[in-house]
Design goal:
Largest sheet: none
Shape: extended
Helix content: 40-55%
Strand content: under 5%
Length: about 120
């Protein structure tokens, strides 16, 4: 293979990284809630174990191609990406401020595990 082919591939991957083309992250996949949701990941895992080099390359290639293909498909059909669900109030991280709005130290938010020695320092 001529050395220019990998160079073009790396350049295209770099351009895809900074492009506005969206990719699915897989964070909202739900495995184990149905029969197919359990069987399909097991079958995919078996294929990855049998021939890891080729299969990881193919999975990566499919993922890289899924962004531009999905982008073109959505442009042709006029569909948009599914909206991102906002965080619920209980999922938001706690602010590290006191009642007056002053920033507090991190130690006040960390769990303390001092054993049975109480507040003694180690020597």
């Amino acid at each position: 293979m001529p050395p220019v082919v990998p160079a073009i591939g790396v350049t295209l991957l770099g351009l895809l990284m900074v492009s506005p083309i969206p990719y699915h992250s897989g964070k909202n996949l739900r495995f184990g809630q149905s029969y197919s949701g359990t069987v399909i990941p097991v079958i995919v895992s078996l294929f990855l174990i049998l021939e890891p080099g080729l299969n990881f390359f193919l999975v990566g290639l499919l993922y890289v191609l899924s962004g531009p293909v999905g982008y073109v498909w959505r442009a042709r059909t006029g569909r948009e990406l599914l909206p991102v669900m906002p965080l619920e109030e209980e999922d938001e991280p706690e602010a590290m401020t006191d009642d007056e709005g002053n920033v507090t130290s991190l130690s006040g938010h960390l769990p303390t595990d001092r054993g049975d020695r109480g507040g003694e320092e180690r020597r």
